[in-house]
Amino acid sequence: MEQPFYSFLEKIIAENSQLNQLNTIQKSFILGGTTQAMRSWITNGSKDSPAEITETLLKIINLATLSDH
Fold first, then answer.
1. Are the C-beta atoms of 63 and 19 separated by less than 8 Å?
2. Are 24 and 7 in contact (CB under 8 A)?
3. C-alpha to C-alpha distance for 63 and 4, rounded to whole angstroms
4. What is the pLDDT, as a whole number, of residue 14?
5. Do the beta carbons of residue 13 and residue 22 sit within 8 Å?
6. Using the 8-state DSSP alphabet, how is residue 68 labeled?
7. Where are the alpha helices (DSSP H) in 1-69?
8. Is the pTM of this model over 0.85?
9. Distance between the two ends of the chain, CA-based, in angstroms?
10. CA–CA separation, 67 vs 45, rounded Å?
11. How does pLDDT run across 8-20, given as a tens digit for each residue?
12. 19 near 66, Cβ under 8 Å?
């Protein structure tokens, strides 16, 4: 289950100019954290919508800050 999702996220990063500027460590962090968040969302039966999960993750990552480095 993780590998197809991980591959999907890699494509999103490659196609997004802001994300594609991140270094390897930053990309790995986002891929790993997002994958584990998805796994937790599924296994714990979260009632949050995909949009709510996305918003939560974006607040943690704060991509605007990362793009400056």
1. yes
2. no
3. 24
4. 85
5. yes
6. T
7. 2-15, 17-20, 24-43, 50-61, 63-66
8. no
9. 32
10. 33
11. 878 888 888 877 8
12. no
